[in-house]
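Q: My collaborator sent me two sequences in one message, no labels, and asked for predicted structures for both. Can we handle them in order? The first one she listed is below.
A: Yes, handling them in the order given. First sequence, followed by its structure tokens:
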Amino acid sequence: MNFIQVELPGVWVIEPDVIGDERGYFLESYNQEKYSSHIDHVFVQDNHSRSRKNILRGLHAQNPHQQGKLVRVTRGEVFDVAVDIRVGSPVFGKWYGRVLAEDNFLQMFIPPGFAHGFCVLSDVAELQYKCTDLYHPESEIIIAWDDPDIGIRWPVVPMLSRRDQQGLRLARLESEGQLPEYL
């Protein structure tokens, strides 16, 4: 198992050990003892999302009740994105994106205080992700997927839900005091 620290501190890409032969493969998708050396969080909720090609979900976060997410793709391929939204962070508003796919087995950990989003590159994709806090709709923050101050280079022309179409710019959320503080 390999933990790769990316440009955003706290965001990890994980390459699990995959044991395979002509019958198929086996991997540990999570092992608390092994992961705790890099990810010091307790997971309390698992989610499963299925989407069609070009669907973009995000950018989502919660404050309070910030959620860290350990994301993996079990079918298809997505471009997965983390954005630091912690006011005062040295990398506030910066993003990192990575292709996660059923055949590359990569996982990405997005820590609390970051927004998360993804777009589907394959005909269909299924994501499974563990969360460090429960879903609290009253705490939900939706950031504009195309916020020019963040500047994510999405690889698709996206289809969005009505809710995601109404996402707000990061600067507005900051000025309204809706974002978490960097500690």
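Q: And the one she listed second?
A: Here it is, processed independently of the first:
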Amino acid sequence: MRTLAILLTMAAAVTMGADKPRSFYVEVRGSGQPMILIPGLSSSPEVWKETVDRYKGRYECHLITVAGFMGKPRIEAPFLETVQRDLAAYIREKKLNKPVLLGHSLGGFVALRIAAAEPNLPGKVVIVDSVPYLALTMNPAIKPEAAKAMGDMMRTRVLNAPSGGNINWVKGMATKPEDHERIAAWGNQSDPRAVGDAMYEMFTTDLREEIGAITAPT
């Protein structure tokens, strides 16, 4: 019996190890109207702490950690397209009625994709520091081929970046010095391939036409 138990345990471990990584992970806080909070590139859902503290008495806050960030296993490309599809499925599976989609940067990009592809799904969409086509912020007249080259360059730069180098760009994006180390640590826990894939997808995906389908207040 002991041998059988060991074999069953090993079989279970092999089965679990064979499972594909999830595209996102969820922590739920508060109660009320559902609100899905998607952080930005390499970020922890704790970036929403003050927001959750303020609204958790009225909103059921679904805090998202995207695959590949914060030590979670990455998934293969197309990365953000998969997150978009799986988040829409999550909303249906959990029967979340007209949730607010709240996204920062990368999270805002994902929220726009969901709202454009599934206009009847969200109740409202709140976008923080995000655009439907990231490459335009570098060159307003950019062509798709140039955007692809730029995305390739950014992905290569991320993959070749020295370990622990996140602190340099964080200083230009956060105002409080005491936050710099904390935010940089989030980036250092993220898989460079996931970060590079996400950046490539945002540089090469143009949502300008698609967002015309959004019907939720945004």
